Amino acid sequence: MTSAAISNSSETVKSSPVLTALRRNRMAWLGGGTLFIIVLVAIFAPLIAPHDPLEQNILARLSPPSADFWLGTDSYGRDVLSRLLYGARISLSIGFLSVLTAMVVGSSLGMLAGYIGGVFEQIVMGLVDVLLSFPTLLLGLMIAAMLGSSFENLIIAIAITEIAPFARVARAPTIAVKRRDFVDAGRSLGLSPLRILGVHILPNILSDVVVVGSLWMASAIRTEASLAFIGLGVQPPTATWGGMIREGFDNILTAWWLVVFPSVAILITVLALNILGDALRDAIDPKTRSGQ
Amino acid sequence: MLGYIFRRILLAIPTLLVMLTVVFILVRLVPGDPAVAMLGDRASEATLQALREQLGLNQPIAVQYFEFLGNMITGDFGKSMVTGRTVLSEVGAVLPYTLELTFSAMVLGTLFGLPLGVIAAVRRNKWPDYASRIVSLIGLSFPGFVSAILLLLCFAVWQHWLPVMSRASSDPVTHIRNLILPALNLGLIMMAYIARVTRSSMLDVLGEDYIRTAQAKGVKARTLVMRHALGNALIPIVTVVGLYFGTLIGNSVLAEIVFTRPGLGKLILGALQSRDYTMLQGLMVVFAIFVILVNTATDVIYGLVDPRVSYKK
């Protein structure tokens, strides 16, 4: 959909070489493919999970990986594999929704700042600089601690930590495009600023925003897991990867499987997103694209 | 030059004001009555009222705001509602542990990250480059607590080489043994980060004309890389390392929790668990000041090492 939107707009030049570069990039396939599988697992978790993720089996508590429980059971006797599969839903949806929120709010702010300029731009970009200088995890921790940790609040907390980079990425090209002839023409034709921003400027910054999005989704998933580990995640008994590690940490001396498997799940997901993000960035940057 | 430093320090003041405002708003975002949120439903009306007064919650919001700013600027960060000690004394008691940890992590990260990045850039698209890139990609993908737990499992639980808990100790040998795993954990993540920045910074510099000129003049490869290229490539690296400090503090919170180590992280966790909101508010301000100080220092150092930065601006 994105590529179609880009290639339909008259003033964009990047679209097809980017796709070609992506298609040729083996890392893009690796990252994208892994991510695709994880998304499938999250969607079909109820179908593939061997057990109910909340079902307690006290007799089988803390049992190591076996034929019945492939990845072992936790201190309530719940199946680790099933909880892991369901946990993917929380991680991916919080990661995706928070980045989407940050993307919409951040790039709107950046575009408006670039387009309007003046005092408004200075205020917005000043705030953005402050947000950027504050460590993501600490900011997320503070907001989540204050708001209370529910699914929605976590999305808000993580989104706020990631607004700044989108505002930055959206502002610079907006300023560049604003000065182009076709925007002047639009303005003299009497098009509303909203229409100019949406129809003529947005398609030009979309590719950059999407790349930043894929890179920051990795960070969003990391932040969610870290908050859950501190105890600020979606509350138990809901299975989240960070929460599983938190619960398993109490039994780290005897039951390694409780922390190792969720750790691996987080690592693979973040790694896949980072690999995909790098490939996207390489594909969009004309310098690295020709060097491939 | 002095003027530049002075102006840069002046620039930190509005940033500090914005951060203080953000903290003020955040604390007032607590849903419902903050006094009830802090003390629980069963607290008596008298205790609730006392707390409201202590927090200044019974005053108009504007008065609260300026009182808050006044307190913070005069260095009164409030008192812990649990221990009754001031935020500053609580922070002062554990700060050396956190500083020691972040500093060792920075040294480790730079010590390993810099050569890794340089080798990757010099051997671009050969196996050392791929190896270095894979290592840094994996390092950057680890949430701080996940790598901490895996290190703990490998070196303390499965192999009893190092202690599981890194509690404070007066014995210097134990002290250092306690520091190894947490520092290694944060240092490895930092190494990944520095290697990546160094590689791209070196690649930029190696593509410059003056490098080709030096090459044509027959400068030895070693001198070329170490003196001509790295000297210039270091400038952006310094900035990035400075800016990374904030992330390092954030990660140290997690490392301290995993390794049961005293420090700011344990302090935050304790304040969260006991719903000690005055402590939390004070800690946020301390962190904010910390980050601003480091960012300002980084900018000043940047101005010192890079003659191209204009002092007039």
Short description:
Chain A has 292 residues and is mainly α. Chain A has helices at 2-8, 15-24, 26-43, 45-48, 80-116, 118-133, 136-147, 151-178, 181-188, 193-230, 241-249, 257-284, 286-291.
Q: What does this 3D model show about the protein?
A:
Chain B: This is Glutathione ABC transporter permease. Chain B: It is found in: Cell membrane. Chain B: Belongs to the binding-protein-dependent transport system permease family. Chain B: One of its GO terms (cellular component) is plasma membrane. Chain B: It is a multi-pass membrane protein. The complex is a heterodimer of chains A (292) and B (313). Chain A is mainly alpha-helical and 292 residues long. Chain A has one domain: MetI-like (MetI-like fold). Chain A has 13 helices and no strands. In chain A, α3 crosses α12. Chain A is elongated and about 75 Å long. The N terminus of chain A is likely disordered. By secondary structure, chain B is mainly alpha-helical. Chain B has a domain of 195 residues: MetI-like (MetI-like fold, Orthogonal Bundle), CATH 1.10.3720. Helices cover 78% and strands 0% of the residues of chain B. Chain B contains 12 helices and no strands. In chain B, α1 runs antiparallel to α12, α5 packs antiparallel against α6 and α5 runs antiparallel to α10. Chain B is globular. The mean pLDDT of chain B is 82. Chains A and B meet through α6, α7, α10, α11 and α12 of A and α1, α6, α7, α10 and α11 of B.
